[in-house]
């Protein structure tokens, strides 16, 4: 060994590479670059042993030999810095020092560690993945061949892992796999030619490709179609370290597509009687293809996308259930109206002949009273005193004058009562509108309002006074029975909003402007806060106690008014009352003349 002069440490501080002079196991000198890298002042390093500073891995390299390796150096925060260390012996002043040239390779070591960790995680994922998957490294050798790949290709992992012969599972002659092509992006034109145009760039990842190939009969398995996708694998530094390829059997889809093409060709030759059947077969095949394609795509989607689709499905189902319940409610209301109309019809029959009998009875009674009056006038002309006295006594005893007056009053009151019953029955029939067709009609809305007020009179009369403020309304094109249902809901709600502690007022007003008419129902009841007003037309929303309301009345009313191309406006103040304003067009848009009937 040739002795060297004592090093000038001032020059070493100018070098941007970490330099250590090691005497035995102690640091004789550390330059500024090394001190900066390890985050410790140079004077704290000088004179201390490697073991004391945690550099035990460095001690084996301080034996007077030339050496090079990657070694860790502990940092103050507990982590390690990695150095590419090159050591050489140097004789200085009769002693042998070790000169260590240190290059920081921590980033590279971390990248290699991350790569190893990624490969381990990749192994665990691939082995449990239900889709055929294999991985190749930089040298195009197979590193992973999962169980799904064994089943799909009929080749065991032990026969292919560690080799560059993945092609043997897919071809009888050597040919590059799609994973090989993505490792060589400059050969895209050759890849396109090899796959006969059935190759395209994948939008899922940069540098990834997808293709469809017909796998021949190999390894004891029948020929089948595969959808293949390959993507490059990169390390933490972004360098390509391999490629991953997935394989999905799409034979069923291809067969379905072939059947669809065959069905289309046959459809051109079939007669008209078979057209419907062929369309159904075509629809079924297309639906099957769409379902299979959807399943293939769903396997590659994230779990959150599947969850979102499931939530939307539940929302749709809830809306269908609500619609079904509304239809049931409509059917119940129609049945109630039919029943009410039937009862009204049954009552009308006895009322008719009672009313007729009362008319006849009143006529007969007038004749009898006229006859009695004639007898009274003739009483004074009776010759027999005894008879005359007896008749006078009997007339006085029976109070004939009072009976005559009272009989007329009783007949008048009975006739008025029968008239009133008859009017109620007629209003009930008008409300249910059972005698009318379900077609659109030109109708007097005031008549419908009066019929509805009479029907719900028992609900209102004990709680509120009804004040009518009608304007002049033209005939309106509508479905009368449905509008009567809306009027009933609004009137009953108004009555129920009024407290039993005081008698309230319900104002029913109407008017017309432009080509619209409006009817307003205002009460001085409890009113509603804004958060309730915003939800009153929602199905099943109600502020009434359980069992007292279905929450469908206003929802159904809203739907009826929308069907009439109208609108419902609401104003409400807590403690002061609520007003509903129904606005309807006089004439329905786009209504054919033959679809409209005159109201009876």
From TrEMBL:
<dbReference type="GO" id="GO:0005524">
    <property type="term" value="F:ATP binding"/>
</dbReference>
<keyword id="KW-0597">Phosphoprotein</keyword>
<dbReference type="Pfam" id="PF00989">
    <property type="entry name" value="PAS"/>
</dbReference>
<keyword id="KW-0547">Nucleotide-binding</keyword>
<keyword id="KW-0175">Coiled coil</keyword>
<dbReference type="InterPro" id="IPR036097">
    <property type="entry name" value="HisK_dim/P_sf"/>
</dbReference>
<dbReference type="InterPro" id="IPR004358">
    <property type="entry name" value="Sig_transdc_His_kin-like_C"/>
</dbReference>
<feature type="coiled-coil region">
    <location>
        <begin position="361"/>
        <end position="388"/>
    </location>
</feature>
<dbReference type="InterPro" id="IPR003661">
    <property type="entry name" value="HisK_dim/P_dom"/>
</dbReference>
<dbReference type="InterPro" id="IPR035965">
    <property type="entry name" value="PAS-like_dom_sf"/>
</dbReference>
<feature type="domain" description="Histidine kinase">
    <location>
        <begin position="342"/>
        <end position="588"/>
    </location>
</feature>
<keyword id="KW-0808">Transferase</keyword>
<dbReference type="Pfam" id="PF02518">
    <property type="entry name" value="HATPase_c"/>
</dbReference>
<dbReference type="InterPro" id="IPR013767">
    <property type="entry name" value="PAS_fold"/>
</dbReference>
<keyword id="KW-0902">Two-component regulatory system</keyword>
<keyword id="KW-0418">Kinase</keyword>
<keyword id="KW-0067">ATP-binding</keyword>
<dbReference type="InterPro" id="IPR000014">
    <property type="entry name" value="PAS"/>
</dbReference>
<protein>
    <recommendedName>
        <fullName>histidine kinase</fullName>
        <ecNumber>2.7.13.3</ecNumber>
    </recommendedName>
</protein>
<feature type="domain" description="PAC">
    <location>
        <begin position="209"/>
        <end position="262"/>
    </location>
</feature>
<dbReference type="InterPro" id="IPR000700">
    <property type="entry name" value="PAS-assoc_C"/>
</dbReference>
<dbReference type="InterPro" id="IPR036890">
    <property type="entry name" value="HATPase_C_sf"/>
</dbReference>
<dbReference type="InterPro" id="IPR003594">
    <property type="entry name" value="HATPase_dom"/>
</dbReference>
<feature type="coiled-coil region">
    <location>
        <begin position="253"/>
        <end position="326"/>
    </location>
</feature>
<dbReference type="Pfam" id="PF13426">
    <property type="entry name" value="PAS_9"/>
</dbReference>
<dbReference type="InterPro" id="IPR005467">
    <property type="entry name" value="His_kinase_dom"/>
</dbReference>
<feature type="domain" description="PAS">
    <location>
        <begin position="118"/>
        <end position="162"/>
    </location>
</feature>
């Amino acid at each position: 060994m040739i002795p060297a002069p004592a090093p000038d440490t001032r020059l070493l501080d100018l070098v941007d590479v970490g330099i250590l002079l090691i005497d035995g196991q102690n640091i004789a000198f550390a330059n500024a670059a090394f001190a900066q890298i390890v985050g410790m002042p140079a004077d704290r390093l000088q004179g201390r042993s490697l073991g004391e500073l945690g550099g035990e891995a460095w001690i084996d390299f301080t034996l007077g030999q030339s050496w090079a390796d990657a070694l860790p150096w502990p940092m103050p925060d507990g982590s390690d810095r990695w150095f590419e260390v090159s050591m050489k012996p140097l004789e200085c002043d009769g002693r042998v020092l070790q000169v260590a040239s240190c290059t920081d390779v921590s980033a590279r070591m971390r990248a290699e560690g991350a790569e190893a960790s990624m490969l381990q995680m990749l192994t665990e994922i691939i082995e449990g993945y239900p889709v055929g998957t294999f991985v190749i490294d930089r040298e195009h050798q197979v590193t992973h061949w999962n169980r799904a790949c064994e089943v799909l290709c009929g080749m065991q992992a032990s026969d292919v892992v560690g080799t560059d012969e993945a092609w043997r599972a897919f071809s009888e002659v050597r040919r590059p796999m799609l994973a090989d092509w993505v490792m060589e992006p400059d050969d895209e034109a050759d890849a396109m030619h090899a796959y006969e145009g059935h190759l395209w760039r994948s939008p899922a990842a940069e540098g990834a490709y997808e293709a469809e190939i017909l796998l021949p009969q190999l390894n004891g398995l029948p020929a089948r179609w595969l959808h293949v996708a390959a993507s490059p694998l990169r390390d933490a530094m972004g360098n390509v370290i391999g490629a991953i390829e997935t394989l999905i059997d799409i034979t069923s889809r291809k067969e379905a597509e072939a059947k669809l093409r065959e069905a289309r060709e046959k459809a051109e030759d079939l007669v008209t009687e078979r057209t419907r059947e062929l369309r159904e077969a075509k629809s079924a095949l297309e639906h099957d293809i769409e379902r299979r394609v959807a399943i293939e795509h769903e396997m590659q989607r994230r779990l959150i996308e599947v969850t979102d689709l499931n939530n939307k499905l539940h929302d749709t189902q809830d809306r269908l259930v609500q619609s079904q319940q509304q239809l049931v409610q409509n059917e119940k209301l129609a049945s109630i109206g039919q029943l009410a109309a039937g009862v009204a019809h049954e009552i009308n029959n006895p009322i008719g002949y009672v009313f007729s009998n009362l008319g006849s009875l009143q006529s007969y009674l007038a004749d009898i009273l006229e006859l009695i009056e004639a007898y009274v006038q003739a009483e004074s002309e009776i010759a027999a005193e005894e008879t005359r006295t007896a008749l006078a006594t009997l007339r006085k005893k029976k109070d004939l004058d009072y009976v005559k007056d009272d009989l007329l009053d009783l007949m008048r009151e009975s006739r008025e009562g029968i008239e009133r019953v008859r009017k109620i029955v007629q209003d009930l029939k008008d409300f249910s509108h059972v005698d009318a067709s379900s077609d659109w009609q030109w109708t007097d809305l005031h008549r419908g309002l009066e019929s509805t007020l009479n029907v719900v009179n028992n609900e209102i009369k004990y709680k509120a006074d009804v004040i009518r403020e009608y304007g002049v309304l033209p005939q309106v094109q509508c479905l009368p029975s449905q509008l009567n249902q809306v009027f009933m809901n609004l009137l009953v709600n108004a009555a129920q909003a009024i407290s039993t502690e005081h008698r309230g007022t319900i104002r029913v007003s109407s008017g017309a402007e432009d080509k619209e008419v409006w009817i307003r129902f205002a009460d001085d009841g409890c009113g509603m806060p804004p958060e309730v007003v915003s939800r009153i037309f929602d199905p099943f929303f109600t502020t009434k106690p359980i069992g007292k309301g279905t929450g469908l009345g206003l929802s159904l009313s809203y739907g009826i008014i929308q069907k009439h191309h109208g609108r419902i406006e609401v104003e409400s103040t807590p403690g002061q009352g609520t007003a509903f304003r129904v606005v309807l067009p006089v004439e329905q848009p786009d209504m054919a003349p033959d679809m409209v009937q005159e109201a009876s």
